[in-house]
TrEMBL record:
Gene Ontology BP term (one): L-arginine deiminase pathway
Pfam families, sorted: DDAH_eukar
Organism encoding this protein: Streptomyces argyrophylli
Lineage, broadest ranks: Bacteria, Bacillati, Actinomycetota, Actinomycetes, Kitasatosporales
A molecular function GO annotation: arginine deiminase activity
Gene3D superfamilies for this protein: L-arginine/glycine Amidinotransferase, Chain A
Name listed for the protein in its UniProt record: Amidinotransferase
Length: 258
């Protein structure tokens, strides 16, 4: 995770960002601290990367890399405003003892567009990651990569439209995907939780699950109820300030899979 010490909205690279709207950086830090404390209470380890001045979106750690089996696929950002984050995150992994590192050839925004299930790596394209990065990820990780096309600019990253709950159990908002990709999701994940616009619009799918606890924005109330019925323990969080940058729980969390 990356503390939002330098968080602000001074440019707009997704429809949620409005530089005219005030952001309370102090409140962003408090809300983020609560998320970090929650992970610790749930028994998870949280590593921190130092936030760099001039990189207000660095708090969205999910975009910094993708790590599977200890292999680190570096990120390469679409927008110039975030480009310096890629090398900064890769350097963190190098400094922390990871040896299998891949400097990407194609644009990929880390776990914003790569999500890992039991069998697959699900990969988004359409707004940020270059579809050619999907092949690159498949070669590097040696796992089948399923390419999915995003069509709604509000759901510009895969992790705003789909979340992995446990193994090959997922939840997603079908309307965020092109018709062909919807069919792929229905055939690969027939038991998935299909999430309505009301829950998706409040970033309900920007969730982190450890297989039991599902941490998600508290406004996604209908979804929380459905997850409870499925045997999960949904935990709602208020990340109102980070939402102004177009991100929530999952965006703030890069999962390290050793
Ligand atoms: N302002 C950031 C951007 O548009 C938000 C990134 C959200 N991160 C995510 N994993 N979806 O790039």
């Amino acid at each position: 995770m990356c503390r939002p010490s330098h968080f602000e909205v001074v440019y707009a690279i997704n429809p949620w960002m409005d530089p005219a709207k005030p952001v309370d950086t102090g409140l962003a830090v408090l809300q983020w601290e609560r998320l970090r404390e929650l992970y610790l209470e749930l028994g998870h380890t949280v590593d921190l990367i130092d936030p760099l001045p001039g990189l207000p979106d660095m708090v969205y750690a999910a975009n910094g890399a993708t790590v599977v089996d200890g292999r680190v696929l570096g990120a390469s950002f679409r927008n110039a405003e975030r480009r310096a984050e890629g090398p900064a995150y890769l350097e963190w992994f190098r400094a922390n003892g990871f040896t299998e590192l891949h400097d990407p050839a194609y644009v990929n925004e880390g776990e914003g567009d790569f999500l890992v299930t039991g069998r697959f790596v699900l990969a988004g394209h359409g707004f940020r990651s270059d579809a050619r990065s999907h092949q690159e990820a498949q070669s590097f990780f040696g796992r089948p990569v399923i390419s999915l096309e995003l069509v709604d600019p509000r759901y510009y990253h895969l992790d705003t439209a789909l979340a992995v709950l446990d193994g090959d159990e997922i939840m997603y908002h079908p309307e965020a995907f092109a018709p062909g990709s919807r069919e792929v999701l229905r055939s690969l994940f027939p038991d998935a939780v299909e999430v309505s616009a009301a829950d998706a619009e409040v970033f309900g799918l920007n969730a982190v699950s450890d297989g039991l606890n599902v941490v998600l924005p508290e406004a996604a109330r209908i979804l929380a109820g459905r997850l409870r019925e499925r045997g999960f323990n949904p935990i709602g969080m208020d990340l109102s300030e980070l939402l102004k940058g177009g991100g929530s729980v999952k965006c703030c969390t890069l999962e390290i899979r050793h």
